[in-house]
Known about the structure:
CATH class of the largest domain: Alpha Beta
Helix content: 10-25%
Structural class: alpha/beta
Strand order of the largest sheet: 4-3-7-1-2-6-5
Shape: globular
Order of helices and strands: EEEEEEHEEHEHEEHEHEEEE
Distance between the termini: 35 Å
Largest sheet: 7 strands, antiparallel
CATH superfamily of the largest domain: Nucleotide-binding domain of ferredoxin-NADP reductase (FNR) module
CATH architecture of the largest domain: 3-Layer(aba) Sandwich
Bound molecules: flavin-adenine dinucleotide, FE2/S2 (inorganic) cluster
Strand content: 25-35%
Amino acid sequence: xxxxxxxxxxxxxxxxxxxxxxxxxxxxxxxxxxxxxxxxxxxxxxxxxxxxxxxxxxxxxxxxxxxxxxxxxxxxxxxxxxxxxxxxxxxxxxxxxxxxxxxxxxxxxxxxxxxxxxxxxxxxxxxxxxxxxxxxxxxxxxxxxxxxxxxxxxxxxxxxxxxxxxxxxxxxxxxxxxxxxxxxxxxxxxxxxxxxxxxxxxxxxxxxxxxxxxxxxxxxxxxxxxxxxxxxxxxxxxxxxxxxxxxxxxxxxxxxxx
Length: 258
Ligand SMILES: Cc1cc2nc3c(=O)[nH]c(=O)nc-3n(C[C@H](O)[C@H](O)[C@H](O)COP(=O)(O)OP(=O)(O)OC[C@H]3O[C@@H](n4cnc5c(N)ncnc54)[C@H](O)[C@@H]3O)c2cc1C
Ligand code: FES
């Protein structure tokens, strides 16, 4: 399907936000689901690139992406008015029902992309978000989370904004004061593992959004599988594109991802 690009702006160094004209199927998307994009009209790059749904309003879908390699570089050069070959929504997103008393979101780096959309769906009385990035200029959407009723705490690796340090350490400190009923996390796999381990030790349910290389994006090629555990401890491979990208953190075999 080809949709019109409405905007494409650099919102922080190397990070772009793209607005795309809405289509019918995407209007019922769940937070954590993604779209699959052909970044060029040639065979280079051949494979589509997955990007999470960042926001949806009455007339556009927004994506937030970091320029990594050839695909995202090509995307960053697209202009409003051009058409984009895009498929979605795809995958299994965050489970937001039933709404518990208190929720916590932990977002690292470009992990902020799917969690702002998630924040719109969370109805808990107490809502907290911890955002971490390398530097202050990469901290996005603090105000937007506040408007949605979230208490916001920020860390940067270099201490240029918020508290100096890693968002995983802020999360551990937070748990000494309060225990959220559920944690949602998105970001680099090392962060997800730390959050998953901490939640496991404290008995807090945790959902994580996992990134992996993808080919078909619809569950057919098995190119995106990760190792997970069954309740009896046996190993089972699950597809990030179809069974995920959001998983219950307790079933992920983190050692195989690090
Ligand atoms: C479900 C899902 C949602 C994602 N959502 C976002 C998002 O909202 N914003 C964002 O900036 N990034 C997101 N990513 C990561 C994004 O897909 C990659 O950064 C992008 O595919 C890199 O493509 P490239 O051609 O620029 O880089 P290249 O390095 O040239 O890509 C080479 C290959 O590696 C794959 N690849 C590289 N990095 C990643 C990665 N981190 N995860 C998965 N595949 C990768 C590409 O798909 C491609 O097949 C998401 C990944 C997944 C799996
Ligand atoms: S990318 Fe083909 S099965 Fe997931």
